[in-house]
Write the structure tokens for this entry.
Amino acid sequence: MPPAFAAAPPARLRGGAFGLIALIGIVSSPAYAAATDMALAFDLAEMLRAGRTVVSGNQALINDPAIGDKGFTGEVLVSEAEVLYENRAAAAGADTSERDQRLLEAQKMAMRQVVDAHQTDINMEGVGFKGFIPAVFARLSNDAFKSLAGSEARIRVTAPPDLVRNRKSRPDAWESEIISTKFMGADWPKGEPYTEVVEYEGRPAFRMLLPEYYLESCLSCHGSPKGETDITGYPKEGGKEGDLGGAISIIVFQ
Ligand code: HEC
């Protein structure tokens, strides 16, 4: 029998009141919880990626020393990110539960707050590179999301220990283990996330780690020559296109 049918109630329980009881049994089963948590985790990752892409697409504007007020507000970022998100997320809008919608709204609020808090920097005339890059935007947005919704869910970006630039992004023991035993393994399917229900801060939590790889556009900072200082002041990692560069880590408390 295919696994998809494993949770179906026995035929004699279908229909009428028995059917309802069986349905409640399915809805509250751990397997169902994991499926909805997985959907939420993907949605949060997709929204974070959309926000980063918008910051990336606006780098030339943000770093233009000739323009003062750039009109790149939190509201602009969120509306551009929403368009990308709708296009990317396969199940966007469909069957999103009240909880998932609430948490996605909190995430958008977090992203909006971060861009709004950086208006003075972003609109600084006479300054070129401002350091408001996708990775910084992501870290600050994830911190703000933790303040808004941290008792329900968390999202962060981490990396293999030898690649981590910001110590706040160092992997925890679970992330480190998955990166080294799964993602670094020769046979791990590229891009495949790892999920597990484990205890986190004393509570059962659904965890997802989603590997990310360097693209050509990352290499001006994370590429070669290794050790050379990049525009942000960090030494380059010597990474190559396609190398594992980091991972998005999501926690959904049960
Ligand atoms: C303009 C230079 C620059 C580019 C381009 C860049 N990064 Fe980074 N990246 C940084 C900096 C600086 C940080 C540390 C940000 C912070 O303070 O949290 C960082 C952080 C990260 C992190 C978080 C873990 C850590 O090291 O702190 C990951 C993962 C990452 N970058 C991957 C990528 C990927 C993948 C790309 C391309 C899609 C990319 N970066 C493009 C400069 C860059």
Observations:
- The chain has two domains: 13-141, 151-254.
